[in-house]
Design brief:
Length: 480
Amino acid sequence: MTEPVQPFFRPERTLINAFGIIILTSLFYFFGAMLRLIDELSLFWPLNAVMAGVFARYAFLNRPHYYLLSYAAMLVYDAITTNWGVASLAINLSNMVFIVTFAMLMQRDASQVKGDERPPLNVLKLFLYCLIASALCALVGTLASIGIDKYKLWPLFADWFSEQFSTGVLILPWVLTVRWPRSKTLVSPDMLWPFMAVVASVGASVLIGGAGSLAFPLAALIWCAIRYSLPVTCLVMLITGVAEIVLVGNSTIQFNTAAPLETAQLFSARLGIAIMALCPLMVSTSVASINALMLQVARRANYDYLTGALSRSGLLETLKKPPFADTRYGSLCVMLIDIDYFKRINDSYGHECGDAVLTAFGERAIRAVGTKGLVARMGGEEFVVVCPGVSLKEGLELAEQLRQRIADYPFNWQEKTLSITISIGLSHQDCIEPGVIDAFTRLMPVADRHLYRSKQSGRNQVTSTSDVGLGSGKVISETI
């Protein structure tokens, strides 16, 4: 199993976090400044949405000193590249208003979710929070820009608000959902068709023009929402929205061929693109929720709800699938495990205590086996551990470690201490063919016989076998 990729921002790395915030702020400030179209107004300003997403995603960054670092980086960039002077304090304050407002609203929702799981993306709340943050940002930014820009109050407010709202709606879903891929994914040619349809529809928008042309990519984006994961759909939506805004801003997509681009047209285009993003994002989140529900149902079918181990059917299904079904393993070790005197526990302390013992054992067994094999509950107090590619010596060592771990750590129940032990029957075979299911089927009866011998010999022990003469029924065993 591959180790999960650690995020760049982590609570214990204060200096690196600070450095990252400064770099991100400076980079996206520069990018937005390069897209200034109408005097001092930027065509597309990604800074606020990116930083708001970062602060919303990592709760530990919501500290005054991190916010101040981002604000200071904006002021330094303005001092170097503009002559706004004192007005820069208020203009960049408007940026911080958007960032802090959105981050705080999202963190309020996240604090209401129990556990460490990240709350699912709520598209309607994201739209609402973008609307609130954009309105407050536009109000502060408009008042700060009156002395700099030649536009009056309403055109300034319309441009600030539409830009902040559209940029937030396009960028924030991707920033909040993007994850480092856990494994390499091969992209088949069929998977490219939805994206190619988006490209073609944007091309049609350029060729045909008119206000309605902005909605041309909608059907293709819904196709992407159905076929792609939520982060990929958000990325495609971001690319499409930015492309349309830039094309409108440069009059490549024209609403009226007889008139040059006006702020009102750009205002309408931005809001239209932002609203259009609602549909594919809602479809994508719905598909993601359905897939998560199906995965949960499948997990309930394949895993034992009490212990967290695989169920009997789940184990067999797992062994039939890659990597177990198509990999040539040099050996296979099967351990059949039984909790000693489990019926006595149920009779003396009740079935609730018995369930608690099963749960504790399942957790300890899964931790002890780790990535070396699979743990499954076969029924009642009987478990099996399947370890492909493990030698007889390694299997014996693992079985003995598991036995000792259970015996050395008593189980506490209602102020009583219960000493739990297990008996293990171990079977092993070398030189198995591709796939392990057939070898597992042959080794299970052998492990069962040795489990019986462990019980007959006094319990709390491991009885094992080598693979010598398995085909003829001859068994070599030893007791540890």
